[in-house]
Amino acid sequence: MIPVAGSVRNTRPAVVTGTLVALCAYVFLQELALPPQELEQMVRRWGLVPARQWYALEHAPDALDAWLWPMFTCMFLHGGWAHLIGNSLFLWIFGAGVENRLGYGRFLAFYLLCGLAGGQLQALLHPHAMTPMIGASGAIAGVLGAYLALYPHATVTVLVPVFFYPLFFDVPAILFLGFWFLEQLLAGATSFTFAQQGGVAWWAHVGGFVAGLLLVGPMLRRDRGYRRPKYRAPITRYERY
Questions:
Q1: Which pLDDT tens digit goes with each residue over 65-84?
Q2: What is the pLDDT of residues 199-223, one digit of tens each?
Q3: Structural domains counted in the chain
Q4: Which of 90, 133, 138, 194 is packed most tightly, with the most Cβ within 10 A?
Q5: Is 156 within a domain?
């Protein structure tokens, strides 16, 4: 199932969400322009490498480029078009509603904190991994967790291609996001070979999602002028075609 829209109507433009999507796209285009050797050097330098991080913290804590900066720069690197487009799609659909509730500055801080939490959980479970971790998935997983906490009664319009024919369905957000989280949790529990073979950092998704659930409440905007967003009506059969 591919999400294509959410049912939350926002009261303000998603400035930070759009900027994050554009920034990730810009960085990825810069990656494409690099020769293979330089690209590998860039990913190793700015990606999060757990073994390097823990070694630097123990032996050279003043070497911030070895452990601190990669915690954040890794969120803006991607490993291919599918990686970028998938992350951008999820961020655009679910990020706007969360940004609407948190406000611009708090949403940016929330996004970075969730990405940090996701990356560090993966690094804790695979402390000897030498494979660089890149991608915004941990931060976006936090956005999904926050969306679930904020809009448990929302719906998500999903695309299900059947023999090249697109079918659209409205499913409860709690069902879609709950199934997504369970999938990440099960994959993480059965895939402890990331450090040796590379692949998907499942525990970064789990850590980001849980961080989003825990952080969104304390970071909510509570100003008097705030208007709670409304849900749109479900897309009907006739509106789809």
A1: 999 999 999 999 999 999 99
A2: 788 999 999 999 999 999 999 876 6
A3: 1
A4: 138
A5: yes
pTM for the full model? 0.89
- Whether 154 is in a domain gets the answer yes
Contact 121, 203 (CB under 8 A): yes
Q: Give residues with Cβ within 8 angstroms of 69, minimum separation 6.
A: 46
Please enumerate, as own/partner, the contacts of 188-194 that have beta carbons within 8 Å and a separation of 24 or more: 192/125, 192/126, 194/122, 194/126, 194/129, 194/131
Domain limits for position 108: 2-219
Which amino acid, residue 58?
E
The CATH number for 202's domain is 1.20.1540.10
Tell me if 170 is assigned to some domain: yes
The answer as to whether 238 is a domain residue is: no
**How would residue 231 be classed by pLDDT, with cut points 50, 70 and 90?**
low
Copy the structure tokens of residue 11. Answer: 């009261």
Tokens at 191, concatenated: 């895939």
Residue written as token pair 């949790």: 185
Amino acid at 207: G
Rounded Cα gap, residues 152 and 137, in angstroms: 21
